[in-house]
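Work through this protein:
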Amino acid sequence: MFYKKVLADDRINGFFDGVDMDRQIAKQKAFMTMAFGGPNNYSGADMRRGHAHLVERGLNDSHFDAVVENLGATLTELGVSDDLIGQVVAVCETVRGDVLGK
């Protein structure tokens, strides 16, 4: 549901060209598990290294905002409370600098 929105969003879908979406979804699930207080099962590259190639392609704050917006919309559609969505957004904000190479 989330990646359906992301892939339909012309602001950011170009960053996913050629991406193995099954692998991407697994990474996102690991992140969301951690964001909701579960174990940290992510075993890939750290956020900075994992997104460096996207930063080189122009990834910036507006793109990060678009991803967070799509995530929030997905969680809203799933009936997640605004308070919990706010917590997820706060977790996302903790990785903004690393994702964007700042």
About this structure: The radius of gyration is 13 Å. The chain has a mean pLDDT of 92. The CA atoms of residues 6 and 51 lie 16 Å apart.
